[in-house]
Amino acid sequence: MSPSFSSRMHRGLLASTALLLAPLGCVTSSQAGAARDEAALRTDEPPRVKPKWGLVIHGGAGVISRENLTPEREAAMRAALTQALQAGHAVLAKGGRSMDAVTAAIRVMEDSPYFNAGKGAVFNHDGVNELDAAVMDGKSRMAGAVAGVHHIQNPIDLARLVMEKSPHVMMVGDGAEAFAQSQGMPLVDAKYFFTEERWQGLQRALEQEKAKGAPPAEQGQPSTQGLSPAQPSAPGQPPTPGATLGQPVTPAQPPASAPQPGHPATPAQPSSPAQLPTKGATPATPAQPVTPAQPQPGSSLTPGVDPITGDHKFGTVGAVALDMDGNLAAGTSTGGMTNKRFGRVGDAPIIGAGTYADERCAVSATGHGEFFIRYTVARDICARVEYQDLPLPEAANYVINDVLVKAGGEGGVIAMDRQGHVAMPFNSSGMYRGYINEDGTPTVAIFQQP
Ligand code: ASP
């Protein structure tokens, strides 16, 4: 680290300490305050003072510009990130386990409508919120994951139940929800996950798809599968304010309701192969300079753009923590990608792709999941630490800003090692992220540059 960079970081840390002593809800969104935060949380540098324990979180990566983020929205998101950091810190400060800190922090973000997880999850092609999550404990290498669940308020808790109360690592769909019920976890009506913003996001994605010439039969036909509670009574209208929040439902028997007027209850038809999202570009050879993959002719893959939605934001949430006993843990929770279909599952619940922890290293990812799966991003970072003895920030930065950039995969990770070093590299213009250590001062950042 250069001396000038070090002193800049040091100044930033001091400044953000003062800034973030403001009570929750009073977090300023002033440019000056934000700039100090950004300086304190550059993408891939460890904190100057190595902590004994700490917590790092993310709330998604993507094209996040100051122009598109209103001051109110920015303040609300910073406040939510701060609250998540404080929830995890409260666990660690009492000598609690890193796994408890991870799930406490993620629950706060799942309960917030601002992130693509839990309450704020995006809609799939059928107008349903379909959630994935995973946890991994570094010391024991036990892991739990769920995918494609529709009625779980906090999927991170169900992932943990899979890890702790079953002999399995991963459960999906109705089976995962039946397991939740067997463990006394209540199911919530799918209406709980409705937000107008996400609904409009799906409508935009469907319009874009229509403009590209997808056959009408594919345009967001409501599914007969568990759709009615999540579906507004009229397109774009919120569902009836519900007494249904938190009410148990039976997972395999979605409440019967008529399809929307004008929309026959036909499940979405598979598209022709030509309309499937195009796979990633062939990775460049390692010797070549780091250049983002170019879009293929006729392909929907544009660097930095979700090929499914054309959107530039992701929004998954994740946390990694190191506790006083030196144990690491990681967790990730997501609604996946807007307009996803065919039971698509991203990287978040795939151990080694979007979530991974061992004795040395813990990682949670956000970004274009298909790339993170194919490049086994989380495990690759930890393998470089283990086999090459690379410093964590170097390993994380290499995978995100070299390997993934060459491949055309957008996103970022948060990572910690057992010495408490932190890395938060991302190759998009922004990543919602935050860090807290034993001094208890939460620091959050969003943009690449101050
Ligand atoms: N990685 C997630 C997925 O592909 C998306 C995200 O990070 O928001 O499902």
Summarize the structure.
With 450 residues, this protein is α+β, with helices and mostly antiparallel strands. The protein has helices spanning 3-20, 31-40, 71-93, 98-110, 155-165, 173-182, 196-211, 369-374, 377-388, 392-407; strands at residues 54-62, 131-137, 143-149, 170-172, 317-322, 328-334, 355-357, 361-367, 411-417, 422-423, 430-437, 443-447.
What are the SSEs and their pairings?
Layout: H1 3-20, H2 31-40, E1 54-62, H3 71-93, H4 98-110, E2 131-137, E3 143-149, H5 155-165, E4 170-172, H6 173-182, H7 196-211, E5 317-322, E6 328-334, E7 355-357, E8 361-367, H8 369-374, H9 377-388, H10 392-407, E9 411-417, E10 422-423, E11 430-437, E12 443-447
Parallel strand pairs: 3-4
Antiparallel strand pairs: 1-5, 1-11, 2-3, 2-6, 5-6, 7-8, 8-9, 9-10, 11-12
The structure holds aspartic acid.
Textual characterization of the structure:
The protein is an alpha+beta fold and 450 residues long. It has helices spanning 3-20, 31-40, 71-93, 98-110, 155-165, 173-182, 196-211, 369-374, 377-388, 392-407; strands spanning 54-62, 131-137, 143-149, 170-172, 317-322, 328-334, 355-357, 361-367, 411-417, 422-423, 430-437, 443-447. An eight-stranded mixed β-sheet has the order 4-3-2-6-5-1-11-12. The structure holds aspartic acid (ASP). Residues 60, 116, 314-316, 334, 336-337, 346-348, 354, 366-367, 369 line the site of aspartic acid.
